[in-house]
Amino acid sequence: MRILLWHVHGSWTDAFVRGRHEYLLPVLPGGGAWGLGRAGRDWPESVREVDLATLDADAVDAVVLQRPEEIDEVVRNLGRKPGVDLPAVFVEHNTPKGNFPNTSHPLAGQDRIPVVHVTHFNRLAWDNGSAPITVIEHGIPDPGQLYTGELPELGVVVNEPVRRGRVTGTDLLPAFASVAPLQVFGMKTEGLAAATGIEASRVTARGDLKTRDLHRELARCRVYVHPMRWTSLGLSLLEAMHLGMPVVVLATTEAPRAVPQEAGVVSADVDELLRCAARLVANPDEARRRGLAAREAALERYGLGKFQDRWDGLLADLRNRPRHPVNERPDERILVPARERKTP
């Protein structure tokens, strides 16, 4: 199948485009949220950059939507309506914002575009209304068991920790920094020490490294810390587990289901997390043993093959769904386009 999708979430897209199809990614001269294309990623040749404005509408077999606004963008450029005369599915990456648990999903009022949640918690948290829903859990291209744990430090991966604050547990980082020095990876990590009051010698902002470099450098840290309060399920956590790192994880959203206790600790008790982090930093042998358990669990539940098989099944179903003439109900809208949603 030839599948149109925007490059929105890099790590998820990295897994998705390694499947068995042809992937069409809109690209614009300035890049940005609507034209990132491959963005220099080392992806298969089956991933093609396209100019959506000149793309032949018949060259698209299905569209994988990730933002409500993409529906109108497809109609405007291709003249085909997702869910009506173009097979479509909507991937929900995020937890609901605002009046949880009473937040309706943007596609809750329709039944032609299936909504795929990336975690079971997401499915539970959103009011999905009449939309067909399913869950396809994350898949991770295995980076290999790179863990060395040679540095008695704590690794954290978070994008925009200063702006996102309590959502990503940034306020918890000073307590972890009192246990061991932090290495913080991700976009816009500069200014973290000043924003949190952590002594500069106790935190190193590593910035946004290329994936291979991130994996290698993160795996040198003794323990991975995941302090996220309200994100769907950070793929960085699953990547750290694949690397063979022991993990210290705040027990929120999907994390308790994703991480077995033998991989480290999963708890809503911050003091317990701190004690475990300190113990693992001081005991390299235990850290390595728990890291092996983390890797085994991640490979079993979040392996790339299982992810691709689930998606192949869904895409085959999409192709076989009956299509409706575009003028069947001319006044019908799939949804009212929502405001631009930003990463929490």
Set out the fold topology.
Elements (H helix, E strand, L loop, with lengths): L1 E3 L5 H7 L5 E5 L20 E4 L11 E4 L3 H10 L9 E5 L22 E3 L2 H6 L7 E3 L15 E7 L3 H4 L8 H5 L4 E4 L6 H5 L6 E5 L3 H8 L2 E6 L8 H9 L3 E4 L4 H4 L5 E4 L2 H13 L1 H19 L1 H17 L24
Parallel strand pairs: 1-2, 1-4, 2-3, 4-5, 5-6, 6-7, 8-9, 8-11, 9-10, 11-12, 12-13
Helix pairs in contact: 8-11
InterPro entries: Glycosyltransferase_grp1
GO molecular function: glycosyltransferase activity
Protein name: D-inositol 3-phosphate glycosyltransferase
Describe this structure in words.
The chain folds into 2 domains: 2-139 and 304-320, Rossmann fold, CATH 3.40.50; 151-302, Rossmann fold (3-Layer(aba) Sandwich), CATH 3.40.50.2000. 31% of the residues lie in helices and 17% in strands. The chain has 12 helices and 13 strands. The strands form 2 sheets. Strands 3-2-1-4-5-6-7 form a 7-stranded parallel β-sheet. It has a 6-stranded parallel β-sheet with strand order 10-9-8-11-12-13, sandwiched between helices. Helix 2 (69-78) links the parallel strand 4 and strand 5 (88-92). The longest helix is centred in the C-terminal third of the chain and has 19 residues, at 284-302. It is elongated. It starts with a strand and ends in a 24-residue tail after the last helix. It comes from Pseudarthrobacter niigatensis. One of its GO terms (molecular function) is glycosyltransferase activity. It holds the Pfam family Glyco_trans_1_4. This is D-inositol 3-phosphate glycosyltransferase.
